[in-house]
Design a protein that fits this description.
The chain is mainly β. About 10% of the residues lie in helices and about 35% in strands. It is built from two helices and eleven strands; from the N terminus they run ββαββββββαβββ. It starts with a strand and ends with a strand.
Length: about 170
């Protein structure tokens, strides 16, 4: 792993190390969004205690941001959805990930790659939290509810203020 991104949030700052060797497409995609300022002033819009913390796609007020084209799912790269790893969020279509990502708040082995089928693709892990784990835990612990058509939304916005590539 050779790329590091720092996320400054309203809950504190944490750093993510990206695995550009095992997940080159996901890493470059994430970095392109970081470099473009896409994640700045977005919210963690889905938080499920004991499961995951998701962000990267919405501004305050649950206003969805435009994205680039989806990327190829790299879930068959050998990396596992274990606590504090970073993975690409997607729809039910295996190759639909774009800007949204999530941090696993538990060992979510059921999200791992099993086969190249609609049910087996899993979710591509491409990094891990290397510092500020307490901040991730703090975000995971926020109270959530329903906002519009969305469930598990923090009742008080948890903002990504700035995402910066460190190295």
């Amino acid at each position: 792993m050779s790329k590091t991104v720092e996320l400054s949030t309203s809950a504190g700052t944490f750093r993510i190390e990206l695995d550009d060797a095992k997940a080159p497409v996901s890493t470059e995609n994430f970095l392109a969004y970081v470099r473009a300022g896409h994640y700045d002033n977005t919210v963690f819009h889905r938080v499920i205690k004991g499961f995951m913390v998701q962000g990267g796609g919405f501004e305050k007020g649950m206003k969805q941001k435009p994205t680039r084209e989806p990327i190829t799912n790299e879930a068959n790269n050998g990396l596992k959805n274990i606590k504090y790893t970073l993975a690409m969020a997607r729809t039910s279509a295996p190759h639909s990930a774009s800007a949204q990502f999530f941090i696993n708040a538990a060992d979510n082995t059921f999200l791992n790659f099993k086969s190249e089928s609609a049910q087996g693709w899993g979710y591509a892990v491409f990094g891990r939290v290397i510092s500020g784990i307490d901040v991730v835990d703090k975000i995971e612990a926020v109270a959530t509810g329903r906002k519009g058509m969305h469930d598990d939304v923090p009742l008080e916005d948890v903002m990504i203020l700035k995402a910066v590539e460190i190295e």
